[in-house]
Structures are given as C-alpha cells and as structure tokens.
Design goal:
Elements lengths: L20 E5 L3 H11 L5 E5 L9 H7 L4 E4 L5 H4 L4 E4 L4 H14 L3 E3 L12 E5 L2 E5 L6 H15 L3 H15 L5 H13 L2 H7 L2 H11 L8 H5 L4
Parallel strand pairs: 1-2, 1-4, 2-3, 4-5
Antiparallel strand pairs: 6-7
Length: 234
C-alpha cells in the first residue's frame, strides 16, 4: 500500500469497521480522539499501545480503555502488531516511531494514518460533520486541518435541517422496495421524493403538507405507513 502522493487525488470512502480489528499506537490527546472515533464504529477489537503508563491514567483515557473491545498494553508497536489489522493509527509522540509503523503498514498492505507525517500513511482522516445518521466528510488534502475544522462546523449547521429528509428516505426506501416494483418505477419514485418540497417542509415542521404530498405521490398501499414515516423524525 503506497504512501500518499500530493499530486494524486484522494479517493473518498466511508469504511465499515464493524467486526474488524484495529490498532492504535499512542494514547496522547490525538490518540484518544482517534480511539473515541473508532469505538463509535463498533470494531471487534482495538489494540492500544503506549510506552508511557501515565498515558492510560487520565480520566478520559480510563473511560475509553474500559470499553470491552479495547485492550491496552504498555509497550512499543512491533511489525507483528500491524498484521491482519483493518486500520492502524500511528499516533505516538515520536515522529520516527510513527514513520516506522507507517512503513510496516505499507509492507503489510494495511491502511495507516500517520499523525505526525500524513504523507507517510495511506489515508487522511477527514473532518466529519454529523447529524443523526447523516454525515459529510471534508478534506483539504492535508493543506489546512484548521480550515477543515471550520468548514465542518459550518456543515453541521447545514446538515441539521436535512437530517429529517434523510431519515424519511431511510424509512421509505425499504417499504418501496418491498413492493417489488420494476427498478425503473422505484427510481422514478425516489427521484420525485428527492426533488420534492418535502425537505423544506420537514425543516419548517410542516408535517401536514408532507402528509398531503405523500398521499398524492405514494402508491396507495403505502398510505397506511404515513405515521411510521413521519413520526419522531430527528
């Protein structure tokens, strides 16, 4: 797995880590942020390594290390540690150590984020704006993490009124697919919903207009599902 090259565009990807085995080297402030993000993605295990015992004693570290899928060991990373990992974070306070870990990952074709020198790793961690299940990832290609953080905050404001629409579509899609209509019919219906004023009305809390539109546009067999489509949206 090659290191990052500034001349080549990065391929955006949302990666499932559910049931996967990950490695975090370094439990400093950055490492704790990485670990918190990993645990939200339900990995099977996260091996956490740090040579300083004190790294595991801060209140937030203690909380993270108490997670049932985390194993902490007070030692340095070895080439064997990266084998079979779905993801590795080289986040120690030693740039040379991080570079060694990144090199082992390249040899083992394991995705690695090298905190101290991103160009030595194989991926960058984007700034992620979230609202419920809706997420937008933003990267400046390493040019300015500060700008990425600023724009992430702006994107969070942008996402909030759209979360209801995303939730509605997430509820509607399986109901429509269960009707076993032709693929073209499904696509046309989904496009009509996406292009409709529903997003605006949901943002305004105008559920009456939403119900009227859905009654007019959805197949009659789905009319009995309006309550489950519209109730308790975020």
């Amino acid at each position: 797995m090659n290191a990052l090259h500034a001349s080549a565009p990065l391929y955006p990807l949302f990666l499932s880590l559910e049931g996967k085995h990950c490695l975090l080297a370094g439990l400093g402030e950055v490492g704790r942020r990485k670990l918190s993000g990993l645990l939200r993605c339900a990995p099977a295990s996260v091996l956490v390594l740090d040579t300083a015992a004190a790294a595991a004693t801060s209140p937030d570290a203690v909380s993270l290390l108490a997670h049932e899928h985390v194993r902490f060991e007070k030692r340095a990373c070895t080439p064997e540690d990266v084998q079979g990992r779905a993801l590795v974070f080289a986040a120690t306070g030693d740039a040379r150590e991080n570079a060694r870990i990144a090199a082992w990952c390249r040899e083992a074709a394991v995705p690695c984020n090298c905190v101290s020198a991103p160009e030595l790793g194989s991926f960058l961690v984007p700034a992620v704006a979230r609202h419920e299940d809706l997420a937008v990832a933003l990267s400046t290609g390493g040019a300015s993490p500060a700008l990425a953080r600023r724009w992430r905050n702006e994107l969070e404001l942008w996402l909030a009124p759209r979360a209801r629409m995303a939730c509605l579509m997430g509820r509607l899609r399986p109901l429509v697919l269960a009707l076993n209509l032709e693929t073209g019919q499904n696509a046309q219906l989904f496009r009509r919903v996406a292009a409709s004023p529903l997003q605006q009305w949901l943002g305004e809390g105008d559920f009456q207009r939403c119900r009227q539109w859905l009654l007019a546009e959805l197949p009659p067999v789905l009319h009995t599902h309006l309550a489950e489509l519209l109730d308790d949206l975020p």
